Amino acid sequence: MARWSRWAPLAAYVVFVAGYALLSVARYDRLAVRSWDLAIFSQAARGYAEHGYPLVDIKGPGVNLLGDHFSPVIALFGPLWALAPSPVTLLVAQAALLAFSVSVVLATAVRHLGPAAGTAVGLAYGISFGVVQAVDFDVHEVAFAAPLLALAGAAYLRQDWRWVVLWSSALVLVKEDQGVTVVAVGLVLLIAGARRWGIGLITFGIAATLLVLLVVIPWINDGGYDYWSRLTGADGEGESVAWPLRAVWPAEKIETLLLTFGITGFLALRSPWVLVALPTLGWRFLSDYDSYWGTEWHYSLTLMPVVFVAMVDGILRARAAGPRWLARYAEHGPAVAVTAAVVLRLQYPLRDLVEPSTYQSTARERAAEEVVETIPDGDSVDTDIGLIAPLVPDHDVYFIGTNTGPDQVTPDWVVVDTRLGWPGRGIAGWAKDHYPGTRWEDVVVGGGYLLAERIDD
User: Which of 96, 76, 86 is nearest to 14 (CA)?
Assistant: First the structure.
């Protein structure tokens, strides 16, 4: 038991670091672009490394990312970027963070449930839909929240309230919404009888949330917090949805709830720790932004360490005080969790790890390399999401959708991806209209990319 509890988490860490990194880096190499997020955080890391703050021109010329989402923890990417300035550095760092959370969950489960059951719970967490979808979808600040929540949950099961408070308090540095999660942790401590710790954590969480949303972000961002408008209570198509129906409708929200708790065999619902998941589910389901509702993106990542630690607690409670049928069912809970996780995740995206096409170079990838190499280092580029991340390390990158208005910057180059809806065989004409008073010339590169260079008089 002692040897297994020592070596199993380490082995899981190594395996999952390799798997997560391989999955995300292979997708990056295939140019399987899903958003601009990797480019945003790459530019933020570069900003910390070069300027000491997260300058992200992709969000708009001169934008400080702390005025968009308050995530000072991203500063930890700065030294890594200075050592290896590439988006791949962030992908590997995220893999390391998430794999560490797997080792924590596995070690905690082994400690409380035994080697076989505990390892099953840890593996189920590692391949759960929330974790794997986050790995497959660029890089996000919430990757730092996963190990913090896992560590806080482990301390909760040990009834080590001091460490619960320390680990969960650090969540306020991850993202502005995590302060409410800190409040939820405080409520759980109250339920557990740790009154002094609970009240202190609730007070801290509320104060930190108000300070960030009402003072810090408006001080950095003249427009204030940009995401209030997403809590309007519509159904994503502009139709008003009445409370409390908003919490479970459209039906996609019910599906997310069933998957989130079903992956633990619903045993997580036996634990007070599951209350820590409510703030994240709350802001997601009350929003009119339909991407929050489902399981396709990265928004379920912070739920996974919570529900799996709650599952361990639920099994312990069922063993100790549950009816006989529940105690018997709880004994099979780890096997249920592994089965559910495998069925859900070995379909996609984990199956990419065994697909030969994942590792094969294509003409399109070679064309992308030619585009990046054509643009001299240090030149400015306006682009869409197609090549936005690969351009960040050596160029001043702007996003076509946000490089507008009075602060618009006229770049040296424009490059777009025809897969994203750009018509025609060139982009120079569009650039001439978009940047009045400038002259442009198309550069032939092929591979579905349109490249134009600004011609100075």
Answer: 96
Q: Give the chain's length.
A: 457
DSSP secondary structure string for all residues of 294-336: SSSSSTTTTHHHHHHHHHHHHHHHHHHHS-HHHHHHHHTHHHH
199 vs 186: CA distance, rounded Å: 6
Sheet containing 380-383: order of strands: 396-399, 380-383, 413-417, 449-454, 440-446
CB contact at 8 A, 383 and 390: no
Distance CA(243)–CA(61), nearest Å, equals 39
CB 271 within 8 A of CB 317: yes
Higher pLDDT, 94 or 259: 94
Backbone angles phi, psi at 456, to 5 degrees: -80, 145
CB of 198 within 8 A of CB of 294? no
Structure-token pair, residue 179: 């302060």
Model confidence at 349: pLDDT above 80: no
Measured in degrees and rounded to the nearest 5, phi and psi for residue 61 equal -55, 120
What is the C-alpha separation between 180 and 171, in angstroms, rounded? 10
152 pLDDT tier (thresholds 50, 70, 90):
very high
CA 115, chain centre distance (Å): 30
Are 308 and 330 in contact by the 8 Å Cβ rule? The answer is no
The H or E element spanning position 383 is strand 380-383
Q: Could you give the percent of the chain with pLDDT greater than 90?
A: 36
Residue reference for tokens 């949330």: 209
Query: Taking 70 as the threshold, does the pLDDT of residue 165 lie above it?
Result: yes
Angle, in degrees to the nearest 10, between helices 87-113 and 2-29: 150
Q: Quick one: pLDDT at residue 186?
A: 96
What H or E segment, with its residue span, contains residue 3?
Answer: helix 2-29
Please name the amino acid found at residue 343: V
Q: How far apart are CA 234 and CA 237, in angstroms?
A: 7
Instruction: Report how far Cα 297 is from the mean position of its chain's Cα atoms.
Output: 8
Query: Residues 171-229: pLDDT tens digits?
Result: 999 998 899 999 999 999 999 988 999 999 999 999 999 999 899 888 988 777 766 66
Q: Does position 5 have pLDDT exceeding 90, yes or no? A: no
